[in-house]
Amino acid sequence: MKGKPVVTRSSAINSSASHVFEVLRLVSAAKEPTGVSDIARSLSLPASTVYRALITLEESEYINRFQSSPRYELGPVPRLLNRALLRRFALQRHVAPMLRRLADETGETASVCARLGWYSLRISVAYGSQDFYHRDRLGEVSPLHTTSPSKAILAGLISEDVARYWRFAAKHFGTTPNAHKQTEAALTAARRDGYVAEPMRFSPGHSAVAMPLRDHAGQVIAALTLHGPVGDSGTGVAPPAGVAMHKAIEAIIAATPARYMSPFAHIDPDDLFIALPPTPHDGATD
User: Fold this and answer.
1) What is the predicted pLDDT for the residue at 232?
2) Exposure b/e, 62-79, CB count within 10 A at least 16 = b
3) CA angle centred on 237, ends 232 and 241, rounded to 5°
């Protein structure tokens, strides 16, 4: 019949594969294990389609059942892929023992996030003894206007690149003028103080701090963060332990700068888009 779409075996396979990836993305973004009904409702798909996709992903070890329940979480394969990505950053291997020492000294979680286009990627983390809930995950990706280490990287970019970033953020993240204005105020303070301060709700007057890490040419390639209440807000003085570790890491980078260049530095940041679940930092709530 004229005008009637022709459904081929190839198009059916492509549609099925698309559903598998949609389900995988949703399981990846979920904050807790999720089941067939929740996924089907979120994706507006039949439960039978979601179930087949889950079985495919489970058999290939992309997801696992959570404690033998009918709910699912990420399996070993994504974690292996994540580790393979992190290992491409030479800085990851060298800062890991340094972060462990810093976390042991301060009792607070310490991490390094590398610049990845217009994003930050947490490539190494050491959890502190005083950190009872580890919300800062290895491999986490964040746009540059959102988290403290992201803002530390953004604050260190040249003005032309900052302007390019805001155009990218408006296009892909829907950032509003209000979010832009609030973040720029934080960036101005970061350029003045040399670090980004994130006030801690449970410790008034104190902040977590994120400091940009630069290469020999002064280009920001990463950020060092102490995630606990280790800095006095508004003093412009970063904690001594963090400053010492910051200098030590920058010395390592300066010794062999080519070694620590991002493996993705050759890609134009505008061409590197990573689909992420919405965060409270996006839009007007930033």
Assistant:
1) 60
2) bbbeeeeeebbbbbeebe
3) 90
